């Protein structure tokens, strides 16, 4: 099988996930898009592992091991991410990302209060770009 | 104590009194009056002591150089000759009288502490000018007087007249002081020193390169300070200040500083005959013009102010004919009787509740209300009109005699033309002086109509001072004209027969003509009611005067004159009256020549600053502001936008890196 | 550009490397299956990120993840495929559905599922896709995976690799999972405590939270 097929599919899936992260409003949908991106990476890892194990006689199977690790980490990430989203939802009554704008430049967004509010969107951002 | 130490103490004591008065004025109100009076008294005693020890002999010179100042040294120097000793006595004497008078005059004034301190400071500055042997130190006193004058004229700063007058006094004298300063520098450069003795030595050895230029520059400052034409216009307006201030500053001492300065440096002026002729012309215009203007004034103090200008004209006239003895003699006697005139006028204004002669002429029995002021003012007016044997007669005759002496061409330094100018105009002014003195006396004390209001007796401090001053006005001239030459240059001060007869005759003619005119017009006075009195006649004298000044313009239409058909001056002057009343339109000329161009320039500068310069400034600020607004708009707080921008940038970078790596 | 690169790749393949690696024009059966499943997977992914019904997005995600499991199988990585089915389809999607439920996500079409950032997102995504596909195709157009012989990802092989060479990272990963577990619990409990405080006084709770962070 041509390596190009899984590679291109993985690239396309990654970009789909990327679009989802940037365009979706609901935080849980953003998390789904993050899963898509992770899976695209997994596909890449598996494909290259299979290729290298045949071509280069590579016996470590590092690709597959890393894929397993990624799956585990993705599971952890989705747990933490959902917990954060739930916390935000309880505090703000919404889980729409574009309504969490405490870091916006505004006429009266200064002082320690504004900084305290900046914590959640920062966490969201870290999650979204993970 | 040596005479030098005493002489240093004379200006120092009032200065310390001023500092103490300013410091303690609020915290210890009970000490303010002693602090004001006692240093001046001590200063007078010391000045008399210095004068006695000096005795008209060799001049006392002492100097210390405090610190090196470059090429031409500035020294703390004394130069006390007979002139300095006697003028210092006069200054201290008048200042003491004014301080005592002020304690009664400003009895209830809340600003009395600062007022008294400023009077003390002023006295100190004048004494410094008198004693100083160094031109730079003299200039210090000269300028301190200017600023004190500004504050004191503006004492009633609640009234717009006082504010305008204080500014005008300050600006006009400064206008003269700028050329004065340049003249001093030029003189020092030419002579190589600021010391008066060395300057005079350099003049004697012909060391001056530009005598005419220096003399004319110095003359500008003198004209400003001594209120000579064309810089005299501040003095009549300065009457908006309290009467004691007018007496001290604008009659007896400050205006005398200019005359005294020329007297000190007379050889410098004599080195240039052009300067002497200019001085003579200046004196002549001042004398004649002020005499005419005084006839047309309605405010009693403005009459006296114009009379001061005229008498100062006599002094500069005497200097123009090279006789400084006569000039200082007239300065001394004038200082005494003019201070008396002003202080008596203050009493009259308090009693009458108005400063308008037109209102006083419709008030009967004013002289019975203020008998002290009536008698002393009569003496002073006779002295002013130069009627023998009052002191003004001797001093004025010495001036006229000196001028007559010059016309015969016996003097080497002074052109005969100057002598003729001074003599002719001086005689004419004697006529005018007698006329306006007579008019003042008749209008103030010979009024008919309703009885003057009775406010009780004037404070003792005010009336005693009048009698103290009346003594020198009466007798100084007669007693002193023989002994004074020993103090001065030794020139003859005895009246000569020709000028005495001419001067006295003209003065009598002026008085009689005015009396005749008054007899004709006084019948009119009853038919034309006119006048207004102060709102609070029971207040202290300063309050009454401030109200009188403030109401003059609303009541009579002008601050200087009144539309009174019963005024003998109107009959005497005829068509000239209209022009004389406003000081021959000099203020209008100044307004057209200086004020309006300056205002135009100011509005042009304002336009340039607001519209042109500010446009650039605003433009420079606007660009960053727009940039900032654009950048701020990017800070939406939406995380997705940030990540989009981040990833877009990453893609661009990656593509660029790939392209570079593959060499595409 | 990608297409052009692909076309040139095909042309060069046909001429020089025809002997070693088969061309794209004569696909094998595995390739055809991979392509078909890939199209389905990709389509499901597209629907996942574009649908307006939030629950449907989760369900389409199931299709995508399942499709990927099939692709793993086609690549002979069978253990990974089952793990994918177990963990992703089995637990992650269930978790996501719980999340949707707990945040009271609307059932049915919600018109504002996409934020205003949509067109910028589309631009960035398409540009990224173009760049990635171009680079990947340009780099691997001639590479061939030999799928014959023993499967590369059987459970035995994977288990040996994992517990011989990767045992230490594996244990570290278990610690990580434990930390994530504890973290999720702490976050949820904290949020609960805050939620009770919020009903009492809103500003007070915010300052408390800021201090806690």
From TrEMBL, chain A:
GO terms for cellular component: NADH dehydrogenase complex; plasma membrane. It is an enzyme of class 7 (translocase). InterPro entries: NADH_UbQ_OxRdtase_chain4L/K, NUOK/Mnh_C1-like. It comes from the Bacteria. It is found in: Cell membrane; Membrane. It catalyses: a quinone + NADH + 5 H(+)(in) = a quinol + NAD(+) + 4 H(+)(out). Residues 114-130 have a biased composition (Basic and acidic residues). Its main location: membrane. GO terms for molecular function: NADH dehydrogenase (quinone) (non-electrogenic) activity; quinone binding. It is a multi-pass membrane protein. Keywords: Cell membrane, Membrane, NAD, Quinone, Translocase, Transmembrane, Transmembrane helix, Transport. GO terms for biological process: ATP synthesis coupled electron transport. Pfam families: Oxidored_q2. Residues 98-130 are annotated as: Disordered. Its EC number is 7.1.1.-. The keyword Transport applies. The chain crosses the membrane at residues 65-89. Belongs to the complex I subunit 4L family. NDH-1 shuttles electrons from NADH, via FMN and iron-sulfur (Fe-S) centers, to quinones in the respiratory chain. The immediate electron acceptor for the enzyme in this species is believed to be a menaquinone. Couples the redox reaction to proton translocation (for every two electrons transferred, four hydrogen ions are translocated across the cytoplasmic membrane), and thus conserves the redox energy in a proton gradient. NDH-1 is composed of 14 different subunits. Subunits NuoA, H, J, K, L, M, N constitute the membrane sector of the complex. This is NADH-quinone oxidoreductase subunit K. It comes from Streptomyces spinoverrucosus.
From TrEMBL, chain B:
GO terms for biological process: ATP synthesis coupled electron transport; electron transport coupled proton transport. One of its GO terms (cellular component) is membrane. Residues 68-115 form the NADH-Ubiquinone oxidoreductase (complex I) chain 5 N-terminal domain. Keywords: Membrane, Transmembrane, Transmembrane helix. Coiled coil: none annotated. The chain crosses the membrane at residues 6-24, 36-56, 76-100, 112-131, 137-157, 169-189, 201-224, 245-263, 275-296, 303-321, 327-352, 373-394, 414-438, 459-481, 501-518, 642-661. Its main location: membrane. Gene3D superfamilies: 1.20.5.2700. GO terms for molecular function: NADH dehydrogenase (ubiquinone) activity; NADH dehydrogenase activity. It is found in: Endomembrane system; Membrane. Residues 132-404 form the NADH:quinone oxidoreductase/Mrp antiporter transmembrane domain. It is a multi-pass membrane protein. NCBIfam families: NDH_I_L. PANTHER family: NADH-UBIQUINONE OXIDOREDUCTASE CHAIN 5. This is NADH dehydrogenase. It comes from Streptomyces spinoverrucosus.
From TrEMBL, chain C:
Keywords: Cell membrane, Membrane, NAD, Quinone, Transmembrane, Transmembrane helix. NDH-1 shuttles electrons from NADH, via FMN and iron-sulfur (Fe-S) centers, to quinones in the respiratory chain. Couples the redox reaction to proton translocation (for every two electrons transferred, four hydrogen ions are translocated across the cytoplasmic membrane), and thus conserves the redox energy in a proton gradient. This is NADH-quinone oxidoreductase subunit J. It is found in: Cell membrane. Its EC number is 7.1.1.-. GO terms for molecular function: NADH dehydrogenase (ubiquinone) activity; quinone binding. PANTHER family: NADH-UBIQUINONE OXIDOREDUCTASE CHAIN 6. Belongs to the complex I subunit 6 family. One of its GO terms (cellular component) is plasma membrane. Signal peptide: none annotated. It comes from the Bacteria. The keyword Membrane applies.
């Amino acid at each position: 099988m041509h390596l190009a097929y899984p590679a291109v599919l993985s690239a396309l899936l990654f970009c789909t996930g990327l679009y989802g992260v940037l365009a979706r409003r609901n935080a849980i949908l953003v998390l789904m898009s993050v899963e898509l991106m992770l899976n695209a990476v997994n596909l890449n890892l598996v494909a290259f592992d299979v290729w290298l194990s045949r071509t280069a006689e590579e016996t470590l199977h590092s690709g597959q091991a890393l894929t397993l690790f990624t799956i585990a980490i993705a599971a952890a990430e989705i747990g933490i991410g959902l917990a954060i989203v739930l916390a935000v939802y309880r505090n703000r009554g919404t889980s729409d990302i574009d309504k969490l704008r405490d870091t916006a430049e505004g006429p009266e967004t200064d002082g320690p209060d504004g900084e305290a509010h900046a914590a959640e969107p920062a966490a969201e951002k870290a999650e979204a770009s993970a | 104590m040596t005479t030098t130490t005493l002489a240093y103490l004379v200006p120092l004591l009032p200065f310390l009194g001023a500092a103490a008065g300013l410091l303690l004025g609020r915290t210890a109100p009970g000490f303010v009056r002693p602090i004001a009076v006692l240093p001046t008294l001590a200063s007078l005693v010391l000045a008399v002591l210095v004068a006695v020890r000096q005795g008209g002999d060799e001049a006392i010179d002492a100097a210390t150089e405090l610190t090196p100042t470059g090429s031409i040294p500035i020294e703390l120097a004394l130069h006390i000759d007979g002139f300095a000793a006697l003028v210092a006595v006069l200054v201290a004497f008048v200042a003491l009288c004014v301080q005592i008078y002020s304690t009664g005059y400003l009895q209830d004034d809340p600003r009395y502490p600062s007022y008294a301190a400023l009077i003390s400071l002023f006295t100190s500055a004048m004494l410094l000018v008198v004693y100083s042997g160094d031109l730079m130190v003299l200039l210090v006193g000269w300028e301190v007087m200017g600023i004190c004058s500004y504050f004191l004229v503006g004492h009633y700063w609640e009234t717009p007249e006082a504010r305008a007058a204080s500014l005008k006094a300050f600006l006009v004298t400064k206008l003269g002081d700028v050329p004065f300063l340049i003249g001093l520098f030029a003189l020092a450069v030419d002579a190589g020193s600021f010391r008066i003795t060395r300057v005079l030595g350099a003049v004697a050895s012909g060391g001056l390169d530009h005598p005419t230029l220096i003399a004319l520059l110095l003359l500008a400052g003198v004209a400003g300070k001594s209120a000579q034409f064309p810089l005299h216009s501040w003095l009549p307006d300065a009457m908006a200040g309290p009467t004691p201030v007018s007496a001290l500053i604008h009659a007896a001492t400050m205006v005398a500083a200019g005359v005294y300065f020329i007297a000190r440096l007379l050889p410098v002026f004599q080195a240039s005959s052009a300067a002497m002729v200019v001085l003579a012309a200046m004196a002549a215009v001042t004398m004649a013009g002020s005499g005419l203007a005084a006839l047309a004034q309605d405010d009693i103090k403005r009459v006296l102010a114009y009379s001061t200008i005229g008498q100062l004209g006599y002094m500069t006239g005497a200097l123009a004919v090279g006789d400084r003895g006569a000039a200082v003699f007239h300065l001394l006697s004038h200082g005494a009787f003019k201070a008396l005139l002003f202080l008596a006028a203050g009493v009259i204004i308090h009693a009458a509740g108005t400063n308008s002669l037109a209102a006083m002429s419709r008030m009967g029995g004013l002289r019975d209300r203020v008998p002290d002021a009536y008698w002393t003012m009569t003496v002073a007016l006779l002295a002013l009109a130069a009627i023998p044997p009052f002191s003004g007669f001797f001093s004025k005759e010495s001036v006229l005699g000196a001028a007559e002496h010059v016309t015969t061409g016996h003097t080497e330094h002074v052109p005969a033309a100057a002598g003729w100018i001074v003599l002719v105009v001086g005689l004419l002014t004697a006529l005018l002086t007698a006329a306006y003195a007579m008019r003042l006396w008749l209008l103030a004390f010979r009024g008919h109509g309703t009885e003057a209001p009775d406010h009780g007796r004037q404070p003792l401090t005010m009336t005693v001072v009048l009698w103290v001053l009346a003594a020198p006005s009466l007798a100084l001239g007669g007693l002193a004209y023989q002994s004074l030459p020993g103090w001065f240059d030794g020139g003859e001060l005895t009246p000569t027969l020709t000028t005495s007869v001419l001067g006295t005759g003209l003065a009598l003619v002026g008085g009689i003509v005015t009396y005749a005119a008054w007899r004709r017009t006084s019948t009119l006075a009853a038919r034309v009611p006119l006048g207004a009195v102060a709102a609070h006649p029971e207040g202290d004298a300063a309050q009454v005067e401030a109200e009188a000044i403030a109401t003059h313009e609303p009541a009579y239409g002008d601050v200087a004159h009144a539309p009174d058909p019963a005024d003998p001056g109107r009959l005497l002057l005829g068509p000239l009256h209209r022009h004389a009343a406003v000081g021959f339109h000099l203020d209008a000329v100044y307004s057209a020549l200086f004020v309006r161009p300056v205002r135009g320039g100011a509005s042009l500068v304002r336009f340039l600053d607001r519209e042109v310069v500010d446009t650039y400034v605003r433009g420079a600020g606007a660009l960053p502001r727009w940039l900032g607004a654009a950048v701020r708009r990017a800070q939406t707080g939406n995380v997705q936008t940030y990540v989009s921008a981040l990833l877009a940038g990453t893609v661009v970078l990656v593509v660029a890196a790939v392209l570079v790596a593959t060499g595409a | 550009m990608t297409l052009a690169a692909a076309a040139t790749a095909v042309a060069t393949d046909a001429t020089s490397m025809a002997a070693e690696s088969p061309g794209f024009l004569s696909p094998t059966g595995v390739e055809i299956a991979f392509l078909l499943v890939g199209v389905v997977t990709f389509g499901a992914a597209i629907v996942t990120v574009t649908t307006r019904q939030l629950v449907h997005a989760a369900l389409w995600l199931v299709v995508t993840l399942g499709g990927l499991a099939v692709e793993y199988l086609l690549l002979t990585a069978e253990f990974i495929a089952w793990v994918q089915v177990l963990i992703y389809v089995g637990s992650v999607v269930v978790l996501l559905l719980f999340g949707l439920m707990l945040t009271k996500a609307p059932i049915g079409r919600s018109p504002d599922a996409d934020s205003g950032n949509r067109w910028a997102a589309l631009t960035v995504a398409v540009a990224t896709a173009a760049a990635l596909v171009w680079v990947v195709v340009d780099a691997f157009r001639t590479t061939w995976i030999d799928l014959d012989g023993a499967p590369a990802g059987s459970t035995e092989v994977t288990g040996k690799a994992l517990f011989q060479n990767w045992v230490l990272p594996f244990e570290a990963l278990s610690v990580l999972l434990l930390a994530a577990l504890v973290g999720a619990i702490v976050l949820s409990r904290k949020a609960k405590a805050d939620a009770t405080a919020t009903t009492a006084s809103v500003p007070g709770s915010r300052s408390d939270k800021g201090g806690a962070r």
